[in-house]
Amino acid sequence: MAKPRIAVFALGGTIAMVKGEAGVRPGLTAEQLVAAAPGIDALARIEARTVSTIGSSDLSVDNVLEVARAIEAAVADGADGAIVTQGTDTMEESAFLLDLALRVDVPVVVTGAMRNPLSISHDGPGNVYAAMQVVTDPAVRREARSLGVMVVMLDTIHAAVDVAKMNSSRIDAFASPEAGPLGVIVEDRVRLTGRPVRDHKTALDAELGDTLLTGIEPPLPTVALLTMGLGESGGLVAAMLADPESFGYAGVVLGAMGGGHTPSWIAPQMDDLVARLPVVMAGRMQAGYVLAKTYERAGSEMDLLRRGVRSAGRLPPLKARMLLTAMLMGGLDQAAMDRVWAAAN
After folding, report:
1. Which of 76, 125, 171, 255 could form a disulfide with 227 if both were Cys (CB 3.0 to 4.6 A apart)?
2. What is the pLDDT of residues 86-135, one digit of tens each?
3. Contact in structure between 13 and 153 (CB atoms under 8 Å)
4. Predicted confidence (pLDDT) per residue in 304-342, tens digit
5. Beta-sheet strands, E only, within the chain
6. Would you kindly state where each structural domain of the chain is located, as residue ranges?
């Protein structure tokens, strides 16, 4: 039987670092990353392409959609799967955005490295090889549409909707804190142990209809992320209300405290903010659902919902921001957005 044909797209990041003057900088190509994983050619026919060589903190929504379009083109040309290598700083966001944008029936995996190639025990080659094991696995290929985009790090398979970077530098930085991983790789076997809940994706696709996010041209809307903390004054919200044109945001995600809370003195500002643009609250922690009917004090989830702030449900702020961005890109009205948010709750 012919080996599957897999497209590999490289975006730079720690996995692609080379020696610089004082530290390291991105520089390795997709071909070099593939060549560094011994035995990978036995798994697939590989077509490697370098999209960029930058740190993932410099990636934009446009960049991620460019990769999504490249994946669509590769699949239309007969590719059986795709791997994206990138930096880990924004991996959970870019993987989730790819999951929102793509409608393909082949597996797509995002991977990278926590240690650069000049480090002892560099994890990049092993992660690339593990990603290839996943995209070529028969069970994964059969269930690709339901699994959605995956992140593979340290022989662990995560759903894009659930994965989070939980540590700034440890090799085991990635986890799925709310739902747990989709599976693991043991020896030469991919063992799936779970399935992702992606009702928000189903709802988004239904509301978008024939509109594809990959077909939307720049300029794209941007969404502000305002994380609430002890003693937050609300000065940024006040500034946005006083001079909205200077800020230029099309929506706001509140990284809310607890089950969906802000300081009580900020809550009245939400009335004016909601009147101008979509405002969504998401728990600033990496796991847990936003509440809906427990606390009723000023600034609580019940108060914010009453004022028109929408709930991101199970999505943390970084992913709620990507979902709101996708809905704004698609031109959804508030009623359509509410149906998508309901699916995440």
Report:
1. 255
2. 999 999 999 999 999 999 999 999 999 999 999 999 999 999 999 999 99
3. no
4. 999 999 999 999 999 999 999 999 999 999 999 999 999
5. 5-12, 17-19, 24-26, 45-54, 81-85, 108-111, 150-153, 156-159, 164-165, 174-175, 183-186, 189-192, 223-227, 251-256, 279-283, 310-311
6. 5-197, 202-344
- Distinct helix (H) and strand (E) counts, the chain: 13, 16
Torsion sign (Cα): 204, 208, 214, 220: negative
Q: Catalytic site residues? A: 14
Same CATH topology for 5-197 and 202-344?
Answer: yes
Let me know: does 174 contact 164? Beta carbons within 8 Å: yes
Longest CA span, the chain: 66
Q: What is the pLDDT of residues 134-174, one digit of tens each?
A: 999 999 999 999 999 999 999 999 999 999 999 999 999 99
All residues at 6 or more sequence positions from 126 whose CB lies less than 8 Å from its CB, including other chains: 37, 155
Structure tokens of 180?
A: 């747990």
The domain defined by 202-344 carries CATH number 1.10.1740.10? no
Q: How far is CA 76 from CA 47, 102, 123, in A?
A: 14, 13, 32
C-alpha 251/C-alpha 94 separation (Å) is 19
The DSSP-derived string for 242-269 is H-HHHH--SEEEEEEBTTTB--TTTHHH
DSSP-derived secondary structure letter, 331: T
CB atoms within 10 A of CB 183: 25
CATH for the 5-197 domain, from 3.30.565.10, 3.40.50.1170, 3.90.1150.10, 1.10.10.10:
3.40.50.1170
* Tokens linked to 98: 């790819």
